[in-house]
Each structure stands twice: as structure tokens, then as C-alpha cells.
UniProtKB/TrEMBL annotation:
Gene source species: Pseudomonas reidholzensis
Pfam families tied to this protein: MFS_1, Sugar_tr
Compartment(s) where it occurs, according to its Swiss-Prot or TrEMBL record: Cell membrane
Gene, per the UniProt record: ousA
Family note: Belongs to the major facilitator superfamily. Metabolite:H+ Symporter (MHS) family (TC 2.A.1.6) family.
Protein name, per record: Osmoprotectant uptake system A
Predominant subcellular localization, coarse grouping: membrane
Transmembrane segments: 40-59, 65-88, 100-118, 164-188, 200-219, 258-275, 295-313, 325-343, 349-374, 386-410, 416-436
Length: 446
């Protein structure tokens, strides 16, 4: 086949060069997929096993208080994310995207493995929840560079006109991690007794992080850095004098883009963790569904999300990031309350239909978001800008979403309380997108 028929390959490239570029792009896609997969497989396991983890590390609390404590530890791990975003962003913008991503997946895998071997409250008392929190903080720090770095990496590798498609690999990999986590936990529930799950079964998904992480690091270390980053390095070599730190340059010259990035990420932060991580717990504890049915519903939602995420990324290449994100915000504003209202005491097929619709709405938002965040910042501060805006929003609204949802239900007595939280996030994202310029159909800024 002539390379002239492939829009992803410039006409000026020879066939060997085109093949080499295609191979590098495929390796970049695999490397980006693997790291996010490992990270969100861990978050899925933690979220779906929350009731068992609560009994293991907070056995003296009543059921609701123990669940709140477990989600509080989940939320606190997000506190360090903005700091991690600055650190990993600086490292990635100064020393290369590949190096930052290789170290982040290693730290994430080791810390996740440590949860799998951590003694419970029965063995070491209060040290158990304290060490759990410490490990989650390390995870939060390492994870803060993963999503942003992978998206920036792919945006800088992808051909012009297909950045939306390629960067959609990042949210797809997060959902794949959640899907595999849901399927793994569901299998544990089927194969093991309640006693076995509480004694040792819940540890198995965390122990898998070690081999996953080693494979991901190996793939990443075999890559070259992105063409955009290498071009920037060559330009800077010819400039005299020291360049400012990426965070200083970001806060001095790109404050507007940073605020837009934080605002538009709010919807992703709240919706992702409410609909794909917290929802099984919500359905089983608040809506009276069996754990088996709640896992089935969430698995179908995740499968829908993954199936549509690449389509939404590709559509954003045609219609623009702004249009897609505004439509997604409006859909959440119009449908969130009605859909949450229909979840109560419904048969499984109705729950499945609602979950599929939620998954499609979220895919429209998340399939577009990573490309927008990569495009609104120039190469010199792209990693830092993406990581800081994404992690501030997730620290304030994403990681706290399961905790806030549980607390709102307890405080108000209303099962619809989480819907109000999701509506607020959609309003913030809509305002941010109305203030944003279209970034598609133009080259990445240098």
C-alpha cells in the first residue's frame, strides 16, 4: 500500500521512515496504555473491595463509619496530587516525558504491591490504617504524573488531525483498568467464600501490580522521547542563559489556560469516580442491589465507556474539542437527576440501560478532555500545565467524590444527593469551556 493513501503519514516521508514512525507511534500507545491500566486497576480494586478493606483496617467502627474511613483514606491520597503534578511536570518538561513516565509506573507498582502485603488491624493495631494511608499517599504522588504524562506523550507523537483519537487511549486505558478490576473482584466473589475474601482474597489484585508494573516500565524504557520534546531541547541548546522553571513560567504566562484546565476537568473528576468507581458501592448499599448485580451493571457501563471513547476522540478531531465538551456538560445537566431517580428499586435491565447512558455521556467528555489539556499549553510547560490542572481538580473533587457522596446521603437522608454534586461539576465545566478557544485543527503550540 502506498503511504500516500494514509493520512497519518506525511507525504514527504519515505516508506522506511513512514514505517518507523508508525512503529514508534504504536509503541508510544502501548506504553501509555500500560501505565494507566496499572494505576486504575488499583483504584478499581480499592473501590470495589471498600467494604472488606473497611472491615480489615477499621474493624471497630460501624459499617457506615468504616466505609467513610476507607473512602477518606482514598480521598487523602489525592491531597499530594497537585504537589506530584508540579514535581513530575518539572521532571517531564525538563528531562523528558519518557523518563518521568518510567519512574512513575515503578513507584506506583511498588506501592500498590505493598498494600497487598500490609498486615491488618488485627495484627498491628492502629499502625495498619496509618500505613495504609502512607502507602496511598505514595500512590497518589506517583499517579499524579501518569495520566498527564501519557496524554502529553501521545499528543506530541500523534499525527496532526488525529490527536483526539490517539490521546483517547489514555482514558480508555483507565477504564480498562477499572473493567479488569471489576471483573477480577467479581471472580473473587464467585470463587471464594466470605471468610476467604476477608482473610486473604482481597490482597490478590494488589499483588498483581508488581508484574504489571515491570512490563510497563520495560516498554517505556524502550521508547525514544517525543519528537516535540526533542525539537524543543535542540532549540534550547542554542539559547544562552537559564530558562525559568516550568511552574514559574506556567504561573506567569499561562494562568488563564490553567484556570480553564482546572474548571473543565471538574466534570471528569466527579463523574469518573462517581459513575465508574463509587457506583457499585452506591447500588449495593443505597439501592438494595446485590453485590453481584451491582458489579454486572458497572461492568456493562465500563464496557460501553471503552467502546465509545475512541469514537468520541475521533469525533473531536472533526468537530472540535469545544463543541464536544460543551455538549457533554449539557447532557449531564439535563439527564443526571432523572437518571439517578430511576436507579431506585429497578430491575437489572433498567439499571443496565441507565449505566450505559451514563457511560456514553462520560465517554463524550473524557474522550475529548486529554487532547484539549495537551493543546492549551505550549511544549515547554505542557506536562506541568496538564498535570497541575488535572491533579488540582482531581484532588479537590475527584478523589473526594466517593467520600462526599456517602457523606451527603448520610447528612441529607436523600439518595439523590450524589446527583447534585455531579450537577455542580457540570456547571463548572460548562463555564470553563465557554471561556476556552477552540484548539483542534491547529498545530501544537511551541
Amino acid at each position: 500500500m502506498s503511504h500516500a493513501s494514509d493520512p497519518a503519514i506525511p507525504l514527504t516521508l519515505s516508506q522506511p521512515a513512514a514505517n518507523s514512525e508508525r512503529q514508534a507511534l504504536r509503541k508510544a500507545a502501548r506504553a501509555s496504555f500500560m501505565g494507566n491500566f496499572v494505576e486504575w486497576f488499583d483504584y478499581a480494586a480499592y473501590g470495589y473491595l471498600a467494604t472488606i478493606i473497611a472491615a480489615t483496617f477499621f474493624p471497630d467502627a460501624d459499617k457506615t463509619t468504616g466505609l467513610l474511613a476507607t473512602f477518606a483514606v482514598f480521598a487523602l491520597s489525592f491531597i499530594v496530587r497537585p504537589l506530584g503534578g508540579v514535581v513530575w511536570g518539572h521532571f517531564g518538561d525538563r528531562h523528558g516525558r519518557r523518563n518521568a513516565l518510567s519512574w512513575s509506573i515503578l513507584i506506583m507498582s511498588v506501592s500498590t504491591f505493598c498494600i497487598g502485603i500490609l498486615p491488618g488491624h488485627a495484627q498491628i493495631g492502629l499502625w495498619a490504617p496509618a500505613l495504609l494511608l502512607l502507602i496511598r499517599l505514595v500512590q497518589g504522588f506517583s499517579a499524579s504524573g501518569e495520566y498527564a504524562g501519557a496524554a502529553a506523550f501521545l499528543a506530541e507523537y500523534a499525527p496532526a488531525g488525529r490527536r483526539g483519537l490517539y490521546t483517547s487511549i489514555v482514558p480508555a486505558s483507565t477504564a480498562a483498568g477499572l473493567l479488569f478490576g471489576a471483573a477480577f473482584v467479581a471472580t473473587l466473589h464467585e470463587l471464594l467464600s466470605t471468610e476467604q475474601l476477608h482473610e486473604w482474597g482481597w490482597r490478590l489484585p494488589f499483588l498483581l501490580a508488581a508484574p504489571f508494573g515491570l512490563v510497563g516500565r520495560y516498554i517505556r524504557m524502550s521508547l525514544q522521547d517525543t519528537p516535540k520534546f526533542l525539537e524543543m531541547e535542540q532549540r534550547l541548546e542554542h539559547k544562552a542563559g537559564a530558562t525559568p522553571a516550568p511552574i514559574r513560567e506556567l504561573l506567569r504566562d499561562h494562568r488563564r489556560s490553567l484556570c480553564i484546565g482546572i474548571g473543565v476537568t471538574c466534570l471528569n473528576a466527579v463523574a469518573f469516580y462517581l459513575l465508574l468507581s463509587y457506583m457499585p458501592t452506591y447500588l449495593s448499599t443505597e439501592m438494595g442491589m446485590s453485590e453481584r448485580d451491582s458489579f454486572i451493571a458497572s461492568t456493562v457501563s465500563l464496557a460501553t465507556y471503552i467502546g465509545l471513547i475512541f469514537l468520541m476522540g475521533r469525533l473531536s478531531d472533526y468537530f472540535g474539542r469545544k463543541a464536544m465538551l460543551i455538549i457533554a456538560s449539557l447532557l449531564f445537566l439535563g439527564l443526571t437527576v432523572p437518571l439517578f431517580s430511576l436507579l431506585d428499586q429497578q430491575p437489572l435491565l433498567v439499571i443496565l440501560a441507565i449505566q450505559i447512558l451514563f457511560g456514553a455521556m462520560l465517554a463524550m467528555n473524557d474522550g475529548t478532555l486529554p487532547c484539549l489539556l495537551a493543546e492549551i499549553f505550549p511544549t515547554r510547560v505542557r506536562f506541568t500545565g496538564f498535570a497541575l490542572s488535572f491533579n488540582i481538580a482531581n484532588a479537590l473533587f475527584g478523589g473526594t467524590a466517593p467520600f462526599i457522596a456517602t457523606w451527603l446521603i448520610q447528612a441529607t437522608g436523600s439518595k439523590l444527593a450524589p446527583a447534585g454534586y455531579l450537577l455542580a461539576a457540570a456547571v463548572v465545566a460548562l463555564v470553563a469551556m465557554l471561556a476556552c478557544r477552540e484548539t483542534a485543527h491547529r498545530p501544537l503550540s511551541d
